[in-house]
RNA sequence: GCCGACCUAGCUCAAUGGCAGAGCAACGGUAUCGUAAACCGUAGGUUCUGGGUUCAAGUCCCAGGGUCGGCUCCA
């Protein structure tokens, strides 16, 4: 038996074992479904009025280990719909499943291990008692989950477990989880002093410290540099708008509850912007454009605000105030491809710099569900075909996201993976023929006719918050020199060396470097320790030796030391910053 | 929003319903030291907020806020 298949069967059998143990301890609990997942399995139960918390897990786990030795084989039987439902008089969930299986004209089968029988399509180990290592699984957590994943349904209690073939693999997995915890961007953000949240300000509204603000600007400057080279211009817009703008763009209806709304004292309705495109259309619409002036490319790094549900907020990855590095290109139909490819260029350059591998996803409409999308199917199909041919020309592999398009057009989404294996959509290129229509955006072409323009939406980071959350976990907070809010620590050995340390510091600062002198009256060992913990790219100790020679000794955070004079040092560091390595 | 857990000093965490504490950080002093933690001292608290039970609440109950693990959602 292939390893993968055996692991699958192990997990599946363990899910049954979990249900058996739960029923042993909580006879009134109603088991529902228990599939295998990456790294383990889960099982959803309706515990009725009993509250199950994580404290119960060791007890359940113990019961699983107690039952396991008696599971030497299983019995299988097939029942008809009526008899099958008789087995579950008290359990509406299983009855529902039985009906579904019957509707699909599939066999209704039951599998019995020991005294525990469960509705199941099969796929178990023949002899769990012999084949399962009782030390190779662990119940991890308890969570709520809607029956069938539908929020209109009752919320069940889900028990998650990790399971492998050997104890060693389980321990390796648990260690990976520990590692991921250390890299959690919320923890690193605090340690690196980049951002904070305040209960007074509110959930999902990060406040940026001086260091965090510096990092944000450095990232944005990088994007801006790449855009500027490609003919973009900066624009700025207010963060509010009258309702009218969004009624015209279609956002008022589509955004619904996610929009922060404001009523003025005169009774007018305003909204805080959840996106920037409609504002930007009004900058474009300020005059009549000649085809010779196209494209117009507007870049704007600015915050948008979305009233996300509190339970969905998560560190920087899901917030209510979101900084988009947004840009909109207004161009002629025939220019769209070239402009899209320019954006793709920027995306590639940007992410390569940080060592990210990107996956490409083409997010398209859902032709069976067109009420979520503006325009007709044929317009969408043309737009999707355009994108497909561009992506293929580019030679990129891509997946399809059916129904995941923006309501105004398809998107090429770029996806980065974080240390926890979660995938985050970061950059996006979107093509929009709908908003130019709504706002009547055109240029005058060679034949002196009005020509409808198309609009490209392009975010490189997507949002600075989300990018930083992914990048913090990707880098574990080890920032390259150019992005480090502090670049060099200078550690004077004793107070006699403070003045010289400050002189050196000021020379480096004058050269544009971000330097700090640690002139606390503490032993050198303590300063070194603090430095080593801090993730600072470089530090140097300054004492009598340095004061009497023109050599400085600089050490990087990997412990590699070099000696050189100040001029060469500045040159070396500047080079490293410029190359963004 | 929903299910469950949690919230104590700037940070990490203690404290059977019975005097709110430690380490680190901060501040003051002594020491001025060459590669991972000098020594002594001082200060620091609406125990998330509001209400309730109790002779007595950080601890128990209710409501709200926030955080965490998930679910649902994410134009």
What do you see in this structure?
It catalyses: tRNA(Thr) + L-threonine + ATP = L-threonyl-tRNA(Thr) + AMP + diphosphate + H(+). It is built from 19 helices and 29 strands. Helices cover 36% and strands 26% of the residues. β25 (488-492), α16 (498-510) and β26 (515-517) form a beta-alpha-beta unit. The model has no long low-confidence stretch (mean pLDDT 94). With 581 residues, it is an alpha+beta fold. α1 (3-25) crosses α2, α7 (185-191) packs across α15 and α8 crosses α12. The two termini are 47 Å apart. It has 3 domains: 3-174, 2-Layer Sandwich (Threonyl-tRNA Synthetase, Chain A, domain 2); 188-475, Bira Bifunctional Protein, Domain 2 (BirA Bifunctional Protein, domain 2, 2-Layer Sandwich); 481-578, Rossmann fold. The structure holds one RNA strand of 75 nucleotides.
- Give the distance, in angstroms, between the N- and C-terminal Cα atoms: 47 Å
Helix content: 25-40%
CATH superfamily of the largest domain: Bira Bifunctional Protein, Domain 2
Number of strands: 29
Classified by CATH, the class of the largest domain is: Alpha Beta
Describe the main β-sheet briefly.
8 strands, mixed
Poorly predicted residue ranges: none
Query: Which band does the percent of strand residues land in?
Result: 25-35%
Average residue pLDDT: 94
Multimer state: single chain
Rounded radius of gyration (Å): 30 Å
CATH architecture label name of the largest domain: 2-Layer Sandwich
Tell me, what's the shape?
A: globular
* Total domains: 3
- Strand order across the largest sheet: 11-16-17-24-21-20-18-19
Question: By helix and strand content, what is the structural category?
Answer: alpha+beta
Number of DSSP helical runs: 19
CATH-assigned fold name of the largest domain: BirA Bifunctional Protein, domain 2
């Amino acid at each position: 038996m292939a390893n993968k298949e055996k692991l699958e069967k192990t997990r599946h059998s363990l899910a049954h074992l979990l249900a058996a143990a739960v029923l042993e301890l909580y006879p009134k609990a109603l088991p529902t479904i228990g599939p295998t997942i990456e790294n383990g399995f889960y099982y959803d139960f309706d515990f009725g009025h009993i509250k199950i918390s994580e404290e119960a897990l060791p007890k359940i786990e113990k019961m699983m280990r107690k039952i396991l030795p008696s599971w030497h084989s299983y019995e299988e039987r097939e029942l008809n719909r009526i008899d099958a439902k008789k087995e579950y008089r008290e359990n509406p969930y299983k009855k529902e499943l039985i009906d579904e299986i019957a509707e699909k004209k599939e066999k209704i089968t039951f599998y019995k291990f020991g005294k525990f029988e469960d509705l199941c399509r099969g796929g178990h180990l023949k002899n769990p008692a012999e084949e399962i290592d009782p030390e190779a699984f662990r119940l991890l957590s308890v969570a709520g989950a809607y029956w069938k994943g539908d929020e209109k349904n009752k919320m069940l209690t889900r028990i998650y477990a990790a399971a492998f073939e050997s104890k060693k693999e389980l321990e390796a997995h648990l260690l990976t989880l520990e590692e991921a915890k250390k890299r959690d961007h919320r923890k690193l953000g605090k340690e690196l002093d980049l951002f904070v949240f305040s209960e007074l300000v509110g959930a999902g509204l990060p406040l940026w410290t001086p260091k965090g603000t510096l990092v944000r600007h450095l990232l944005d400057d990088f994007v801006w540099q790449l855009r500027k080279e490609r003919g973009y211009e900066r624009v700025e817009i207010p963060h509010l708008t009258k309702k009218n703008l969004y009624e015209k763009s279609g956002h008022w209806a589509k955004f619904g509850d996610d929009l922060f709304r404001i009523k003025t004292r005169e009774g007018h309705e305003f909204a805080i912007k959840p996106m920037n495109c409609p504002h930007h259309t009004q900058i474009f619409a300020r005059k009549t454009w000649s085809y010779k002036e196209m494209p117009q490319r507007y870049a704007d790094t600015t915050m948008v605000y979305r009233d996300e549900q509190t339970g969905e907020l998560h560190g920087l990855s899901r917030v209510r105030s979101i900084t988009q590095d947004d840009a909109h290109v207004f161009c002629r139909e025939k220019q769209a491809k070239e402009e899209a490819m320019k954006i793709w260029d920027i995306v590639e350059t940007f992410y390569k710099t940080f060592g990210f591998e990107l996956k490409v996803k083409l997010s398209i409409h859902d032709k069976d569900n067109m009420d979520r999308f503006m325009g007709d199917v044929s317009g969408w199909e043309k737009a999707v075909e355009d994108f497909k041919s561009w992506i293929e020309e580019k030679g990129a592999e891509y997946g399809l996201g059916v129904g995941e398009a923006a309501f105004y057009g398809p998107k090429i989404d770029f996806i980065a993976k974080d240390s926890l294996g979660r995938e985050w959509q970061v950059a996006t290129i979107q093509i929009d023929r709908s908003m130019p229509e709504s706002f009547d955006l055109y240029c005058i072409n060679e034949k002196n006719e009005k020509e409808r323009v198309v609009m490209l939406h392009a975010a490189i980071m997507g949002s600075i918050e989300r990018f930083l959350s992914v990048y913090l976990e990707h880098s574990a907070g080890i920032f390259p020199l150019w992005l480090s809010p502090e670049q060099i620590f200078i550690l004077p050995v004793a107070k006699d060396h403070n003045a010289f340390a400050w002189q050196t510091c000021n020379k480096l600062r004058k050269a544009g470097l971000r330097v700090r002198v640690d002139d606390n009256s503490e032993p050198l060992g303590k300063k070194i320790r603090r430095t080593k913990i801090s993730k600072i790219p470089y530090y140097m100790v300054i004492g009598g030796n340095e004061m009497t020679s023109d050599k400085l000794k600089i050490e990087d955070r990997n412990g590699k030391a070099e000696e050189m004079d100040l001029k060469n040092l500045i040159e070396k560091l500047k080079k490293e910053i410029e190359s963004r390595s």
